[in-house]
Amino acid sequence: MRQVRHVLSMDLDLTPFYAVARDDPDLAWVLQGAGRMVRSPTVFEDVVKTICTTNTSWGGTTRMVNALVEHLGAKAPGAAASGPYGRAFPTPKAMADAPDRFYKNVVGAGYRGAYLKKLSSDVANGRVDLESLGTTSRSELPDDDVAARLLALPGVGPYAAAHIMLMLGRYDRLILDSWTRPTYMRLLGRRRPVTDRTIVRRFQRYGSYAGLAFWLFVTRDWIADDVSAYSWVQP
């Protein structure tokens, strides 16, 4: 039950976020119950998946993750002989033990292969503790310290760190990348580029929930059918 609560983010208090969103015409729809991000059972899995999203299409991400699960994940009884379904996400040790050629020829991870191998080895050997990032409170480990630890990981830059922090329930950083920036402009009906500073200022009112507010703003048309009662939502 603890793991289910974690995966569904049921252990997070979003009351302060909803209090601000209530007065924001662009995000009032979240009061219907949106905002709880679906997370992986472990921080390690979320970090690996995030690295697999860098500089590639969504199709490339799913291909890499599926290959990792199919070839390195523990197989459940009755699972199909091939394919990722019916298999667990691989452990750090399983990924650390895989040879370099596996990441190149099977996963097709490109330059990410070295990052995934190093990360897995560091976690498996106890040199890096990722899971504590998901259980340590802000009073013990402030967001800036978490960000610094994430940025020290192989393959994790500002975008990846912000994305992982969103999964950790630390929402103060905006995920600004080659998809969210133009999507934000499109939703505003703007043709000229908007600076990151301008975007950050728009969501400052949300304080430590600014990153969550921004993410829900740029993904709101993913669930447009559910919020069609609001005139500002376009299908």
Characterization of this structure:
- With 235 residues, the chain is mainly α.
- The chain has 2 domains: 89 residues, no CATH class; 125 residues, Endonuclease III, domain 1.
- The chain contains 12 helices and no strands.
- α3 runs antiparallel to α9 and α8 crosses α9.
- The radius of gyration is 19 Å and the shape is globular.
- The protein starts with a helix and ends in a 17-residue tail after the last helix.
- The C terminus is likely disordered.
Secondary-structure map:
Layout lengths: L1 H6 L7 H7 L21 H9 L6 H15 L19 H6 L2 H7 L5 H13 L18 H9 L6 H10 L12 H9 L7 H7 L7 H9 L17
- What ranges have pLDDT less than 50 throughout 5 or more consecutive residues? 226-235
The main sheet comes to:
none
Helix- and strand-based class? mainly alpha
CATH class of the largest domain, named: Mainly Alpha
The tally of structural domains comes to: 2
Shape label: globular
Strand content: under 5%
